[in-house]
Every structure is written in structure tokens, then in C-alpha cells.
Specification:
This is Adenylate kinase. The protein is α/β, with parallel strands linked by helices. It is built from nine helices and five strands. It has one domain: P-loop containing nucleotide triphosphate hydrolases (Rossmann fold, 3-Layer(aba) Sandwich), CATH 3.40.50.300. The longest helix has 17 residues. Bound molecules: adenosine-5'-diphosphate (ADP) and magnesium ion. Magnesium ion binds next to helix 1.
Amino acid sequence: MRLLLIGAPGSGKGTQAKRIAAHYHLTHISSGDLLRKEIAAGSDIGRTAGRYVEAGDLVPDNVVMDMLRGPVEEAGRGNGYILDGFPRTVAQAQAAYLVARSLDVAVQIALYLEVPREELLRRMHARAGAQGRADDTDEVMLHRLDVFDELTAPLLEYYARRETLLCVPGDRPVQEVTDTVIKEIDRVRAI
Ligand code: ADP
Ligand code: MG
């Protein structure tokens, strides 16, 4: 099974992706986690990506695509993947689809975790305290939410048109969100 999660920063993508991956034995591929690893290692990708991530801007498409191609192909040929945080724009989705389709590892289901803005800010504040992420400062948080609304939210229409979109309310306790996501996936898989 090949899934991807769409959600604003703080919507619970990372939290849910780990749980869904464990439930269906999928590989969890988080573009944010991979970028933070590259940045910490000081690699070429990390040095290019660092200033975008710190500012709350999107890292250029080709950098992210190059980083993800290998892991997505490998997991796609195995038991499947759940992508967390990619694609972030319609252009990325289109480019990724062309590559993935030619390898026969294209996404089958897109899941949207819908959470109101006040709750997103509350969670990002809590995460900033707990994890100290450089992009969880007030100014950058607000900017990331704007970037989501402007560039990433159009993905919802893109996947809805392809009839691969499932929407789940993310403003519920963690276990309840997981249960709903699994129920929705099993429902469409049974069709
Ligand atoms: P994302 O990867 O979408 O940015 P995270 O999984 O890092 O989101 O979650 C952001 C923050 O919100 C984390 O501190 C996490 O513990 C918390 N969180 C995630 N899901 C929920 C939930 N359903 N209810 C309350 N807090 C949550
Ligand atoms: Mg995340």
C-alpha cells in the first residue's frame, strides 16, 4: 500500500504516520525528518536546505525530489510507504507522479488531516518547548501556516479530482485520529 499524508504543520502528520506505518507494516518516509538529518550532518543537501527550513520556506523541488527518489522507490517495491510532508505543492505532486508511475510505485491514497489554525499554533508551541525545533518560533510558525494555505492546500483539489483523497478530522485525541484513519483506509481498500 502506498499512502501520503497532507496536513498543515502541527496537524499530526509525524505522529499519525508512525502509527499507520506500524499498523500496515509500511515504511514511514518523512521529508522533514530526512531534511533535518541532512542539515545536522552538514551534507550538500543539508547546506542547501538549511536556510529554507529555518525561514519556514519550502526547499526547492529538485532538492527534495533527489532526496526522496531512492527511499520511495525502495519502499514502493517492498511492502509500501507512507509519505509524510511530501508533496508540498501541486508542481511537486505532478513531477513525483511522473517519476513514480514509471517505476510503478505511485501513490494510491492521499489522506488529509484537518485541524483548525488555533489548535495548530497551540501544538507547535508545545512542540517548540519539547523538541526545540528551529522552525517552531512564533514568526516562522505563522509563515509556515501561510505557506501551507497558499501552496500546499491546492493539493487537496488535485487529489480530490483523482479520487484518491480521504479527509479525517485531526482535532481529536491521537488514538481516535489513528482509528478513524485506519477505518477510512480499510473502507476504500474494500471497494
Ligand atoms: P506534523 O508532523 O504534522 O508537523 P507532529 O506529528 O509533529 O505534526 O505533531 C505536532 C505536535 O502536536 C506534536 O507536539 C504532537 O505531539 C502533537 N499532536 C499530534 N497529534 C495530536 C493530537 N491528535 N492531539 C493533540 N496533540 C497532537
Ligand atoms: Mg512532521
